[in-house]
Amino acid sequence: xxxxxxxxxxxxxxxxxxxxxxxxxxxxxxxxxxxxxxxxxxxxxxxxxxxxxxxxxxxxxxxxxxxxxxxxxxxxxxxxxxxxxxxxxxxxxxxxxxxxxxxxxxxxxxxxxxxxxxxxxxxxxxxxxxxxxxxxxxxxxxxxxxxxxxxxxxxxxxxxxxxxxxxxxxxxxxxxxxxxxxxxxxxxxxxxxxxxxxxxxxxxxxxxxxxxxxxxxxxxxxxxxxxxxxxxxxxxxxxxxxxxxxxxxxxxxxxxxxxxxxxxxxxxxxxxxxxxxxxxxxxxxxxxxxxxxxxxxxxxxxxxxxxxxxxxxxxxxxxxxxxxxxxxxxxxxxxxxxxxxxxxxxxxxxxxxxxxxxxxxxxxxxxxxxxxxxxxxxxxxxxxxxxxxxxxxxxxxxxxxxxxxxxxxxxxxxxxxxxxxxxxxxxxxxxxxxxxxxxxxxxxxxxxxxxxxxxxxxxxxxxxxxxxxxxxxxxxxxxxxxxxxxxxxxxxxxxxxxxxxxxxxxxxx
Length: 509
Prior knowledge:
By secondary structure, this protein is α/β, with parallel strands linked by helices.
């Protein structure tokens, strides 16, 4: 019987092989047809949405040339749902109030243009921010800058130590490493003292945050909120829309924003070296905008408003400050995301670049601008504006690094000066215009910050602040390698290929 069974098996093997091969061919054919259908569908959907044609062509190319990998990438990053459906909660009272007051301020400035004073050359940026993101012109008593992750975290920690009423902390990355534990212990201590503590962290940026870490903070009385948690295996409705903001508000009296997250690499550095970044502490009306942004994100997560109480928005006594000789520093705090009707962050960068008369200094760790911003930079340089861009010599993301480098050649050809920072990783997101206006915040000069992320930045209309920013740029330039066209032409063929492939993928990721 054994011999007979063996013979029976031998007879079945060729037949089974044929069936398996035929079935696999059919399955492959079905998958490939589905892929082609999706490519046509994606192209049609993007065309109907009047999507960037470069981005549309990039997706179609990836779907056709990488049939299965491209399909996975499209489901994770390419599908877009109507923003009004996803982010309908933003029409609450705080948002309506901001909208009404910005319209009032816009009309007031139009009727009384003399109030702009020294800001008159930048009225284009001011009106644009008022109208596209309902961003008020705010008066502030002080701004302080920090240029390393450690300095910023130390200042934030000190401010929270002095909290008496509430702490509102928002971070894209909050890790349960030694830095995260240190901050968590302080927050739990303040909660035990009766201080209201609320924390918002992002579902992707803080994906490694452990449940027991969150749980112990919640048991201590801290409100821990995850923004757009991604639940596998169906993350497509949320994975593309991340909250990249970094905000801290203490007692409604001082606020922080910039590029620094809560993680060890910001304090100690990492394999790339010391972590350089730009963060700012502000006192004045801009704190109210930071507070409002925090409440709106909280409202999005909980669909529950927080009662407006005096302790969240304390009265500012500018008359007293004037008597003490305090100078008013004008800012606009632009909060933008995929729920906005306009690409406010991108438009703010674009306008700032186009109004420059003398020089532009840009620092960005990830530089993949859209065609509008890229052309604005090149046109400024061709028009004899001194344009300098500082990029990392090495990045924490290979594809982002090579994609960034793919823009270097055309920028050098236009006359832009390119500096590669070598002493650590420079994570700053900074633009300075003519030593008069500076922009600091969470937004990179890339398409993800322009289109997908919730970001926040401060436009600072002050020569003293711009002078501080530009002095740091000059100091950091001494730790850079300046590229020349001749040096760039000598790079390896392998690097050129990697740049080209990464440039193709940059609109997608």
